[in-house]
Task: inverse folding
């Protein structure tokens, strides 16, 4: 017998404009002309080595992937990353579900980051109508259109709206299930969503006055893959009754496989992971395993990938010597331990993500 489930339809969501936010993007963003604080000598050496590797990788046509946690967005670094992708330095961006949300909220209302403790006590944390409504609807429509998680949201911001297909089109897709069962299932999910929330077909305009700060929008505009890697139940969009697990799964799986394709081509390329202690190492190790599986079948194992890992935690272990023993606290720095097992060359840099990315931009010019 099924266990009882929480009924999200009973949750009272409030207008996003009523929320107090800790970060305002116009005030708090990092300009591309900002001067980074001096890095430590080891950190500076790693940033310079990373820049050198990126130059070589670009000259050879190899991937340059950037994975980052939500604080990279909350710290206002989208203008810096936008400049780096405009200049062609990164060929793939990847973040977690929170990074997707903060980037969207900045583009939509110019502010993000609520007070978690106070809002949980009031039963208000994450209960914001526009964030839950627009992002979940973008994912349900994106799943039907064959888009990935980050691409679905990037399209919403860049085009400043969503196109809702007519019922007849969705019914036709459902009727063609034998020819394309995946699209039929996505069409059925979307149809159910449109009916439940009484959403009419046609163009839904969603202005984003701060779109210039939207990293997903810039990636969509520049045709740079921006993949979203959520973990179910981790993000505030799951609070909203429109949240649809199948659509989240379809778009996130598409993004995972797009990311894995980037890793599969990483021989001679660069992977820069900034402030992501869980998402980045976990999806990288599975992708690298799949990539090595294929590479070994072809007789060309992946050996020349370069990985630079950045976080605030200090490490007292020399990761060029492999991983420490289990009685060493550094053994439990998950991201370092994981990446040190991935072959290739791994470097760890303890530094503020703002100073690292600004320094990298300055060096690459």
Result:
């Amino acid at each position: 017998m099924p266990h009882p489930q929480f009924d999200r339809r009973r949750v009272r969501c409030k207008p996003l404009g009523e929320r107090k936010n800790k970060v305002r993007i116009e005030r708090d963003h990092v300009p591309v002309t900002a001067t980074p604080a001096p890095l430590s000598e080891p950190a500076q050496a790693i940033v310079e080595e990373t820049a050198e590797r990126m130059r070589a990788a670009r000259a050879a046509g190899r991937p340059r992937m950037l994975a980052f946690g939500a604080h990279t967005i909350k710290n206002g670094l989208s203008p810096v990353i936008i400049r780096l992708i405009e200049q062609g330095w990164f060929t793939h961006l990847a973040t977690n579900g929170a990074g997707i949300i903060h980037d969207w909220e900045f583009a939509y209302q110019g502010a993000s980051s609520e007070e978690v403790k106070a809002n949980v006590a009031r039963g208000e944390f994450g209960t914001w109508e526009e964030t839950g409504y627009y992002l979940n609807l973008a994912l349900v429509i994106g799943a039907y259109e064959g888009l990935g998680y980050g691409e679905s949201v990037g399209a919403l911001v860049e085009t400043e709206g969503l196109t809702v297909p007519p019922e007849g089109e969705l019914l036709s897709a459902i009727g063609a299930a034998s020819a394309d069962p995946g699209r039929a299932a996505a069409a059925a999910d979307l149809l159910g969503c449109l009916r439940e929330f009484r959403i009419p077909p046609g163009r839904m305009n969603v202005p984003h006055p701060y779109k210039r700060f939207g990293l997903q929008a810039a990636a969509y505009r520049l045709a740079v893959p921006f993949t979203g890697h959520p973990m179910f139940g981790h993000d505030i969009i799951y609070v909203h009754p429109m949240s649809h697990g199948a659509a989240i799964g379809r778009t996130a799986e598409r993004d995972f496989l797009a990311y894995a394709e980037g890793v599969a081509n990483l021989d001679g390329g660069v992977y820069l992971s900034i402030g992501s202690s869980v998402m980045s190492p976990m999806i990288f190790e599975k992708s690298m395993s799949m990539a090595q599986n294929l590479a070994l079948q072809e007789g060309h194992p992946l050996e020349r990938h370069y990985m630079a890992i950045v976080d605030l935690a200090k490490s007292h272990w020399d990761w060029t010597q492999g991983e420490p023993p289990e009685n060493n606290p550094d053994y439990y720095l998950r991201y370092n331990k994981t990446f040190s097992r991935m072959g290739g060359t791994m470097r760890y840099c303890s530094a503020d993500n703002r100073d690292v990315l600004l320094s990298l931009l300055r060096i690459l010019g």
